[in-house]
Amino acid sequence: MKRIGVELDGVTVTAVLFEDKAPVTVAKFWECLPYEDRVTHGKWSGDMFHTNTDFAFELDVSKWAFGMENPVGYQAPGDIVFLPVAKEIAIAYGGARFSWVTGPMMVSAIGRIEGDLTEFAKKADRLQWEGAKRIVLRRL
Amino acid sequence: MKRVVVEFDGKAFDAVLFDDQAPIICNNIWNALPLEGPATNTKWSGDMLRLWVQIPEPPERENMSQLQNPGDIIFLHKWNGLRFVYGQARMQGPNGAHPTPLVGRMLGGVEELAALGSRVEWEGAARIRVRRA
Do B122 and A43 make contact, defined as CB atoms within 8 angstroms? Predict the structure, then answer.
């Protein structure tokens, strides 16, 4: 099972990727690692932040319902989701639901942070107050 | 309508309070002026800045709005503070949209407010001051 390290502003957590549920997306995502960016807090989705530099891979989304693998409409704290149309990932750290201007959106669930989320969530919550922070995603 | 001035980034913009439509809430705001504090983007409501100040909680809901437009100034009971709409936005939370009192409107400076909202997203909270004109 593929695992990654997610480092946000000096705090690192481990996440498992859903190779079984989203094999194509996870494989393409894996090839982009390591990935470094500055993340910003979402403005529509509650306790959730997102990347801002495109994940530079193409997906043939025509064969999947909702245009993505493993589509979900709800997120739990620690869930990592991918939005193909925006080529971004978003991570929930509390009460969150991926949304945009017109409301909640389906997104592709590609992984989940394991273990204690407390310190990571504290860092994520500061994004709203302190602005963008560095994130690094690495293979483990 | 009572006239106020909204200040940020060294600039000042005129705004009005709808004391004819929301007299109790606007009176509480007016009596609390000047108000100054940090402003952040909201987490659920889109292009909307929240000014983190405390206004004496009014007992009633007045001039309830379902939709918001750029330039609108709104108050939210219990959560308090003032919110300034600068683009695509709707007051909402995890359980959907909240009808909310529309208490005023910017008479200019919406583009500057949008620039502030974008900057806050990347650089963190900024200060906004509201005073009587």
Answer: no
Total beta-carbon pairs less than 8 A apart between chain A and chain B = 48
Helices (H), A40-82: none
Q: Which of B105, B47, B54 is nearest to B81 (CA)?
A: B54
Task: Give pLDDT tens digits for A6-48.
Answer: 999 999 999 999 999 999 999 999 999 999 999 999 999 999 9
ipTM (interface pTM): 0.93
When scoring B52, B83, B121, B127 by the number of chain A Cβ atoms within 10 A, the one with the most, hence best to mutate, is B121
**What domains appear along chain A, each with residue ranges and CATH number?**
3-139 (2.40.100.20)
Burial zone of B66 (CB within 10 Å; 0-12 exposed, 13-18 middle, 19+ buried):
exposed
Residue A1 has pLDDT above 90, yes or no: no
Alpha carbon distance B41, B50 (integer Å): 6
Mean pLDDT taken over chain B: 97
Tokens of A97: 């639901």
pLDDT in tens, B51-99: 999 999 999 999 999 999 999 999 999 999 999 999 999 999 998 999 9
Domains, chain B, in order of start with CATH, read 2-132 (2.40.100.20)
Nearest-Cα residue of chain A relative to residue B52: A129
Question: What is the value of pTM for the model shown?
Answer: 0.95
Answer positive or negative: Cα dihedral of B85, B91, B93, B96. Answer: negative
Q: Is B121 in contact with A99 (Cβ distance < 8 A)?
A: no
Instruction: Classify burial at B7, counting beta carbons within 10 Å of its beta carbon; exposed 0-12, middle 13-18, buried 19 or more.
Output: middle
The set of residues, in sequence order, having a beta carbon less than 8 Å from that of A66 and lying 6+ positions away, is: A106
